[in-house]
TrEMBL record, chain B:
<protein>
    <submittedName>
        <fullName>ABC transporter substrate-binding protein</fullName>
    </submittedName>
</protein>
<dbReference type="InterPro" id="IPR006311">
    <property type="entry name" value="TAT_signal"/>
</dbReference>
<dbReference type="Pfam" id="PF00496">
    <property type="entry name" value="SBP_bac_5"/>
</dbReference>
<dbReference type="GO" id="GO:0030288">
    <property type="term" value="C:outer membrane-bounded periplasmic space"/>
</dbReference>
<comment type="similarity">
    <text>Belongs to the bacterial solute-binding protein 5 family.</text>
</comment>
<dbReference type="InterPro" id="IPR039424">
    <property type="entry name" value="SBP_5"/>
</dbReference>
<dbReference type="GO" id="GO:1904680">
    <property type="term" value="F:peptide transmembrane transporter activity"/>
</dbReference>
<feature type="domain" description="Solute-binding protein family 5">
    <location>
        <begin position="95"/>
        <end position="441"/>
    </location>
</feature>
<dbReference type="InterPro" id="IPR000914">
    <property type="entry name" value="SBP_5_dom"/>
</dbReference>
<dbReference type="InterPro" id="IPR030678">
    <property type="entry name" value="Peptide/Ni-bd"/>
</dbReference>
<dbReference type="GO" id="GO:0043190">
    <property type="term" value="C:ATP-binding cassette (ABC) transporter complex"/>
</dbReference>
<dbReference type="GO" id="GO:0015833">
    <property type="term" value="P:peptide transport"/>
</dbReference>
């Protein structure tokens, strides 16, 4: 069962790599034209293509790349010959750090206020939580980012506006530098999870066994946390997984506003320079994150749900 | 102060906000002249510190190989680690760098260059003629180098001695030293090939290279140029977002930034901790370029209608907030000594444009434009469309993708947006773009008379004669060419007040991208 899941995941990665490769071939231009840009002449383009091996057939180039990957070698970037794993590693750790930091703030907020809103359905807390969350998600992330910079780093110099961290940045300093982007992301993902938690709990609340619990004379808070929540968890977990994946793969705008060295900007630069091995590596890392989180959500749903745990 | 009129730079290029100046003068009881910033360059230089530069003009794909340089960050770290063959001095003339001096014979085909003595690479090797020859050959033959065209006239390079190189050109060129000042033409030791470990003669040696994030270099402590290289180390941080860059400067997280936004310079000037250095009329040339052999633009009347039908002043005031000069279609910068100020500027004249356009038979006009060409291209095009409308001319605007613009649109579309960077000599500026056989002749304008004139001017050693030849060449382009160069942008750099020694340079921003070796901390 687990083995087949992993096998399926690997197959997905292979398909993803083929799709990415085909898409990069459909894009107009190649590394030579994108690097030389306005400076290109037919002779310099030909020399550059020959140097990069771009004059070989596309299928051959893909197979050569795949062969390298199967031996654990993601190769070097076409544009600057840097080892892709060496560059991608620290950037991916940065991306995970930012995503983790944001998740640490967003998850308790979303789930906590989601449950609270369900308990106090229709009352002030519920309304307020909803309105604030919707406001936050309605603002584009760069706008939130600039607002935070204006208030917390220009008007009050509490946090730096540049979140440029290196491998040698100490942990405390790193947390401090990444706070503003993490808060921006929290704004972005909280609403979705909060509303899902609230609605999922509320829909469970209208079932017969919950009514029974009320009839037994239990308090609303106890009914929600003890009876409704475990059964409401499964859809909430899928939404959380989706949002966590988004925190990893969808943050390029925030990276740009705060100049954060994550994977997003690396991939964008690679796409604009048609640096196929780098695009492939980033794409596979992103696809891997999605597959892992989805698998994790499925497993959690099974663990939490006795009916799925003991299938008849 | 009218808001439409930007503060004018003092002689040092430093913009002094008038309110700020008056407030300061009042508080100190001083009478300040219009050149409050001039004292900057005169403070005695001193050693020490790390210059943190927040820059745009590079990406995670950057390489140290100078044959791949295209943008500001590359040029900056290139000049930190390596040296050029020839440097462009403050007055725009070619002056010796690793090639110390040179001489040529009449006809300017035979050249002798003396290689500077006593210069060592970071690896300890002493510079000699072989290094120069090897470095030049990186741009010759089968090569990806963008400088290939620039040096294509070189027929032969010979070693005349351990410190002397002879160059023979296939056709004469009195401006050869200017060609050698190109930022791709840097010097590595003979046989060098591992670009991950660059070995140069520059003031700073590479320490960290994380393209897209930061580049750090450290002072070698034995730089050969006197009165240069004051910092202990240099840190370039990639900050592509202009708002983030501006903010990083104001809050003191970096000491210098390039490419300030004309729209927010007024705000930057309010900061008491920051200076703005404006290089007037040497920035990028912004243009719309039409193919002269396309049916729509085949008649010179159409081209002239477009030149009279564009309201240049309005674009300069609106899109560039006054931080640009009006272009006169030749790509020669107003700051250039050969610039012809008396070329009749094609000032906005809707009636004239209308009658010329009718005379040409009112062909359909479509302009392809994208922000990928240059920032402000789309806004300028919309204003162009509006000003043509007043002349009864309908211009169809087609917005195209920024991605792949240089590959798919430029040189291919019959009418599109383009920018041209400054070239160190008039000959390069004219011959790379307007020569009949030029690879980058993006207007498809071909005039044998012009070609002959430019080739003749190239070997003319009498400055007065040369000047009149270049004047004629500029007239030819302006009156019949397909290039509508409507503006020449200003370079706007921002520096923390403690950064001294940065003055506008006639070629590039940030002191010709040599701020790392020219500037110092007060």
């Amino acid at each position: 069962m687990i083995l087949s899941r992993i096998g399926l995941g690997l197959l997905t990665l292979l398909v993803v790599s083929i799709v990415i490769f085909v898409l990069t071939q459909i894009l107009p231009g190649d590394t030579a034209t994108s690097v030389l840009g306005q400076n290109a002449t037919p002779e310099t383009l030909a020399a550059f293509r020959h140097e990069l091996g771009l004059d070989r057939p596309a299928a051959l180039r893909y197979l050569a790349w795949l062969g390298g990957v199967l031996h654990g070698d993601f190769g070097v970037a076409l544009t600057n010959k840097q080892d892709i794993v060496e560059v991608l590693g620290p950037r991916f750790r940065n991306t995970l750090f930012l995503a983790g930091y944001a998740a640490l703030m967003a998850l308790p907020l979303a789930v906590g206020f989601g449950i609270l809103a369900a308990i106090r359905e229709g009352r002030l807390t519920d309304r307020l939580a909803n309105i604030v969350a919707l406001l936050a998600i309605s603002m584009p992330e760069f706008f939130v980012g600039y607002l935070l910079i204006l208030n917390l780093s220009v008007n009050h110099e509490w946090f730096p506006s540049l979140a440029t961290v290196g491998t040698d940045t100490p942990f405390g300093e790193r947390v401090w530098a990444v706070t503003l982007p993490a808060v921006t992301l929290t704004f972005l993902v909280t609403a979705h999870m909060l509303r899902m938690t609230r609605n999922s709990v509320l829909s469970t609340m209208s079932t017969a066994y919950v009514e029974m619990a009320f009839l037994k004379g239990l308090s609303r808070a106890r009914v929600v946390t003890r009876h409704a929540l475990p059964n409401a968890a499964s859809p909430v977990i899928s939404v959380i997984a989706l949002n966590l994946a988004y925190l990893v793969v969808g943050v390029v705008v925030v990276e740009n506003v705060f100049t954060y060295p994550g994977v997003g900007q690396y991939m964008i630069d690679a796409v604009s320079k048609r640096d196929v091995p780098v695009i492939e590596a980033c794409g596979i890392v992103f696809a891997g994150v999605f597959i892992t989180l989805n698998t994790f959500a499925d497993v959690m749903a099974i663990v939490l749900n006795p009916r799925l745990r003991h299938p008849r | 102060m009218k808001t439409a009129e930007p503060p004018s730079p003092g002689p040092s290029g430093l913009i002094v906000d008038r309110r700020q100046l008056l407030a300061g003068a009042g508080a100190l009881g001083l009478a300040l002249g219009p050149m409050g910033g001039l004292a900057r360059a005169e403070d005695a230089p001193k050693k020490g510190g790390t210059l943190r530069m927040g820059m745009e003009g590079g990406s995670a794909s950057d390489s140290l190989d100078f044959r791949t340089y295209t943008d500001s960050i590359h040029i900056s770290y290139g000049y930190q680690i390596f040296n050029g063959m020839v440097e462009i001095a403050q007055d725009g003339t070619a002056t010796g760098e690793l090639l110390e001096s040179w001489s040529t014979k009449p006809g300017a085909t035979e050249w002798v260059f003396d290689v500077r003595k006593g210069v060592t690479f970071h690896s300890g090797k002493t510079l000699d003629a072989d290094d120069i020859i090897y470095s030049l050959n990186l741009h010759r033959g089968e090569t990806k180098s963008p400088a290939k065209d620039l040096l294509s006239a070189i027929a032969d390079i010979r070693k005349l001695g351990p410190n002397q190189v002879g160059i023979t050109l296939s056709s004469g060129n009195a401006d050869l030293p200017y060609n050698l000042s190109d930022y791709h033409v840097l010097v590595v030791p003979n046989g060098f090939s591992d670009w991950s470990k660059p070995d140069g003669t520059g003031a700073y040696a590479l320490e960290t290279f994380q393209p897209g994030v930061k580049v750090v270099t450290r002072n070698t402590g034995r730089y050969w140029k006197p009165n240069r290289a004051w910092f202990d180390s240099i840190e370039i941080r990639y900050i592509p977002d202009v708002a983030a860059r501006t903010q990083a400067l104001i809050s003191g997280q970096v000491d210098a930034v390039n490419r300030l936004d004309p729209k927010t310079v007024g705000f930057v000037l309010k900061s008491p901790k920051v200076d703005v250095v404006q290089s007037k009329g040497s920035g990028n040339r912004f243009a719309f370029v039409a193919h002269c052999d396309d049916p729509s633009f085949a008649s010179n009347d159409t081209r002239m209608a477009l030149k009279y039908g564009i309201d240049r002043q309005k674009i300069v005031d609106t899109v560039y907030k006054g931080y640009a000069s009006i272009g006169n279609d030749t790509l020669i910068a107003p700051s250039n000594p050969y610039f012809v100020p008396n070329t009749p500027p094609h000032s906005y004249d809707p009636d004239r444009a209308a009658s010329l356009y009718k005379k040409a038979g009112s062909p359909p006009l479509q302009l392809q434009v994208s922000e990928g060409a240059f920032s402000g291209a789309t806004d300028s095009a919309v204003l162009f469309q509006e000003s043509l409308k007043k002349a009864g001319i309908n211009l169809d605007l087609k917005r195209v993708s920024a991605d792949g613009y240089w590959d798919n649109v430029w040189l291919k579309a019959p009418f599109c947006a383009v920018y041209w960077g400054g070239r160190p000599s008039v000959d390069l500026q004219l011959s790379q773009t307007f020569f009949s056989t030029a690879n980058w002749n993006d207007s498809h304008w071909r005039d044998p008379g012009f070609d002959k004139l430019v080739v003749a001017a190239r070997i003319e050693l009498d400055p007065a004669k040369r000047k009149s030849m270049y004047a004629e060449a500029q007239h030819m382009i302006a009156d019949t060419g397909g290039m509508i160069c409507y503006a020449v942008g200003d370079y706007l750099d921002g520096y923390a007040k403690k950064v001294k020694g940065v003055v506008p340079h006639p070629r590039y921003d940030m002191a010709d991208q040599r701020a790392a070796e020219k500037a110092w901390f007060a």
